[in-house]
Amino acid sequence: MSKLYLDPNLIARARTAASDIADSLQSFILERTTVAVERTVLRLYGMDGVDADYVPLPNVVVDHLKEGGVLERGAATFVLNAVLQTGRTIQEIGEAVADGTLNLCELPLASLDEIRKKGIELATASLERIRANRAKRDEYLTRLGEGPQPYIYVIVATGNIYEDVVQAKAAARQGADIIAVIRSTGQSLIDYVPYGATTEGFGGTYATQENFKIMRAALDEVGEEIGRYIRLCNYCSGLCMPEIAAMGAIERLDVMLNDALYGILFRDINMQRTLVDQNFSRMINSFAGVIINTGEDNYLTTADAVEQAPSVLASQFINEQLALRSGLPEEQMGLGHAFEMSPDLEDGFLLELSQAQMAREIFPRAPLKYMPPTKHMTGNIFKGHVQDTLFNMVGVMTNQGIQLLGMMTEAIHTPLIHDRHIAIEAAKYVFKNMRNFGEEIEYKRDGKIVARAQEVLNDAAAKLEEIRDIGMLEAISRGMFADVKRTMTGGKGLHGVFMRAEDYWNPFETLLRAELGLEAMAR
């Protein structure tokens, strides 16, 4: 029974509206591909490295096919054809295109049956590597175990991957369960993935496959030392969303930030590009066993957290439904929300508790990701520490899945090792002393907490039904999420979106749809 006395019929109404919205978007998505999706296919096949100008080979090959006017048929067809015609590996094909000795568009085409047979053979082998990574994670979890939920999630962000390793290991020893390596500022807006280990990020460290590998090895090492599996998180949002999802799957990341709307609203990435990219990226995340984190917390830092609560819930419903259509199970949906109401608001704690409990009841199987106060941090470290403590209380009282710890030095500087240590110690204290507190309390039926939850749910359901009536893309254009308006043809990356040709083929999409049961869902 709902502690907040939420109406199950109203929840069902909201979910039905979100499902209808997702169905409409899915039809739009499946008619299109993007340069990022096609680059991801090549990365999954093992194409890596850069040319003489440090342009990643997947970019070189996809741009080559785009210029040749054939990309709408899918990069796989032409690269696999070259494998059959030349006897070279996919990596060698990429290198030959880069040095100008091979034109994929001029090679005679083998039969499509022959190309697709070869493509499925090589794609199956590539997916086995990811399957093995998932099995290895399961083995670690069985042998070492992990901390209880809420997982303690902390950030490292020095800009230097090797310094990040030092800080990450320290945080793990102090009690962190998830280490998130923040990306360098602006990486989400560059239309390629940097290559190799990096040491000069700004406000974070570049997300590269080599950096993923370095941090994964470091966390496995410290996990063995302390007898607890440490999860690794990075970001597969932005213009390279599916590529970074693939890199994360290959290097055994455990958590990735991935949202259907975040890039559109908060990074001004074209909506068509984002919607297509998130679909394929989530299929990869699902197969790899990666927990995604969505970005609804950003609504609450952009606009008023009290007013935007229904938008957060509506976005959670939509993210849930789009994730299901990518084959992502609820157990891997770290739907986001945040403790972002003004600390000067009377009874603000009650409203925050209401919102968190409501999310937990509506999405009972999701490992919800709860974000700390940031917008109203002032630099007063003592007040900030109290705000973070109240946030931690709500997290454990409502059984959140992932607790991104706040730092008392938020709004002053990037956290130092001792800042992180204090935050972890405080969270461990609250979590242990209040572990079962949520099970011991009930909410007053006619009280403020219950009334607030019912009001937010009612408004979210009405908003979802309005969005269904006018269309999701139109709703975004009108600024119905976080007061941010975006258009179909605006934003970054539209030039990288293509309508699929009738003979378009993505071998990994074909295999993943079968693997994740999406063909059965479509029928």
Automatic annotation (TrEMBL):
GO molecular function, a single term: cobalamin binding
Coiled coil: none
Keyword Oxidoreductase recorded: yes
Keywords, sorted A to Z: Dioxygenase, Oxidoreductase
Entries under SUPFAM superfamilies matching the protein: Cobalamin (vitamin B12)-dependent enzymes
Gene3D superfamilies for the chain: D-Lysine 5,6-aminomutase alpha subunit (3.20.20.440)
Pfam families for this protein: Lys-AminoMut_A
Domain D-Lysine 5,6-aminomutase alpha subunit span(s) in chain numbering: 4-510
Name used for this protein in its record: Dioxygenase
Organism: Tumebacillus flagellatus
